[in-house]
């Protein structure tokens, strides 16, 4: 026992311990991806015992879901995309998607999400199902064409490619081009997929 009456070792839970665990997990998922992140490593980074992480989260999957909370509600994203003229939907998609990536918190979360999707079949499945239900289907419905899901899927390939090149790989000049110019260049391509 120490002079303060506490036993040595990891600190107990405090008022924001859960938040600190989530932040440590977010950083670990962003740096290492889903497969290489462990509950023990997250606990170590947060300065708590692994049992305390398990107290708040039943599994690594649950911790991931909490840590990777996308900075905006996917249903709200879909609502913003479909609200407006069809001939401007490509611009709205580019603006909303890149807007999430441009915020520091959003970028950290999205990097972690992308890295985890490519290292875990389960995370990829969860994301695929969630994105399809909350974003792809609502956008496809407003297009009102037989191959709407294919069209929205092609848009997804452009967005994912852009995000990888700009935010993960840092390929120039895409990595440093100003966001408005990038949206101006990307929007017509997305629009062509959707309504062309």
Automatic annotation (TrEMBL):
DNA-binding region: 38-57
Top-rank lineage group of the source organism: Bacteria
PROSITE patterns: HTH_TETR_2
GO function term, MF aspect, one: DNA-binding transcription factor activity
Any single Pfam family the record assigns to this protein: TetR_N
Family matches, as Gene3D superfamilies: Homeodomain-like, Tetracycline Repressor, domain 2
Keywords: DNA-binding
Record SUPFAM superfamilies: Homeodomain-like, Tetracyclin repressor-like, C-terminal domain
InterPro entries reported in the protein's UniProt record: Homeodomain-like_sf (IPR009057), HTH-type_TetR-like_transc_reg (IPR050109), HTH_TetR (IPR001647), Tet_transcr_reg_TetR-rel_C_sf (IPR036271), TetR_C_16 (IPR041678)
Keyword DNA-binding: yes
Domain HTH tetR-type: 15-75
Name recorded for this polypeptide: TetR/AcrR family transcriptional regulator
Species for this entry: Kribbella soli
């Amino acid at each position: 026992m120490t002079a303060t009456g506490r036993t040595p070792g990891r600190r107990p839970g405090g008022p924001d311990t859960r938040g600190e665990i989530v932040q440590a997990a977010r950083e670990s998922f962003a740096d290492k991806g889903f497969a290489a992140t462990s509950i023990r490593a997250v606990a170590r980074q947060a300065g708590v015992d692994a049992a305390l992480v398990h107290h708040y989260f039943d599994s690594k999957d649950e911790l991931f879901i909490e840590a990777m909370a996308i900075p905006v509600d996917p249903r709200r994203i879909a609502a913003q995309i479909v609200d407006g003229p069809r001939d401007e939907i490509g611009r709205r998609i580019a603006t909303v998607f890149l807007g999430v990536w441009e915020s520091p918190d959003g970028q950290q979360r999205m990097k972690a999400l992308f890295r985890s999707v490519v290292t875990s079949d389960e995370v990829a499945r969860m994301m695929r199902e969630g994105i399809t239900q909350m974003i792809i289907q609502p956008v496809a419905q407003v297009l009102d064409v037989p191959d709407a899901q294919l069209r929205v899927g092609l848009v997804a390939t452009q967005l994912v490619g852009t995000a990888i090149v700009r935010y993960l790989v840092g390929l120039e000049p895409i990595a440093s081009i100003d966001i408005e110019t990038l949206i101006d260049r990307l929007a017509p391509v997305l629009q062509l997929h959707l309504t062309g």
